[in-house]
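dumping this here so i dont lose it again. seq + smiles for zinc ion
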Amino acid sequence: MHRFASELFPICRSITGDGVRETLSRIGALIPIQVTDVPTGTRTFDWTVPREWNIRDAYIKDPSGQKIVEFKDSSLHVMSYSTPVKGMVSLQELKQHLHTLPERPDWIPYRTSYYKEDWGFCLRHSEMESLQDGLYEVCIDSTLKDGSLTYGECLIAGQSVDEVLISTHVCHPALANDNLSGMVIATALAQHLSSLKLRYSYRFVFIPGTIGAITWLARNQSRTGKIKHGLVLTGIGNRAPFHYKKSRRGDAEIDSAAGLVLRSGSEPYEILDFTPYGYDERQYCSPGFNLPVGCLMRSVWGTFPEYHTSADNLDFIAPDTLEGSLKLCASILDILEHNETLLNTNPYCEPQLGKRNLYRSTGGASISDEINARLWVLNFSDGQHSLLDIAERSGLSFKLINQAAADLKTGGLLIAA
Ligand SMILES: [Zn+2]
């Protein structure tokens, strides 16, 4: 995953353009991706698909003719959606188009101007401070014209047409945690699920943030009823505690599953209530849709100094943290795959487990947990409580509860509710 992030890192992505297509094509080499292009000007609810932005080169030359800022060194050097510019400007005028981080003088900020026509360069504050008076040559060789917005989808079919939505944004340039981590984990998760026999179908959407999610929802409004669970994956590769932001509903099955996996894991975590600010869960959880979609992160947007700066680089994410995040996602999905609501066929007093060989099995300390789990499952399988509910209430692991249910089914004591 880290190697794949390194491969994608230099590609200049934005909300439209060749960088997104190139990224989707690289992802498509690993998992089956269906790419959709939505033309500029298409109305998507209250929004309109913008013009397409592409860039070939950009630089600033100092009064001596030396290049001091070069797009080819880092795609962060150019404000995303900068209009083309070529000419000579004074230092005073140039400074009106420069973005820096005075409090982090050696980092380059990430800036965008999607909906206001402007041009700009981003650079280290220390470099800007050293600029002398004189005439500077500026060049941004970009185009902003009618084209399309591009997104990719990967459907991994399961037994049911009911879907689990996994969404990740693909519009940021050279930023590793936000959100190459989401892209590479979603890709690896799709590869992992492809090898399993699945109950749900899984739809992975690789979309530009905000306008991409809005466009996807506008084009798929009639089929959102199929989405039974969903996760937005973002900022999930750095060394920080997990943060799970609940769906707007707050009591969706994905919220319970994520909470249970985090509580039973060894890594620190925090569970956040839904707020209408954040990533694309804002669109999936807008009141008209109100889908059961949560957001899984490590660091929360805007709360860590490296956020939207050149310090969110490939050293900021690590193979082991990516792996921990992938495993967490797989565990959450594994609960969704196996969660069900069952009915105890013998609800009047406890059934006699001993005569069904369900009271003692192999020796060791695990016996009591194993039998305890069977008693919990029998007691609460009244058609009202799912296995996930029972795991939460009992404090036992989902794996143990699920195994107990399997054993009790075999023993004829449980049926589908
Ligand atoms: Zn971001």
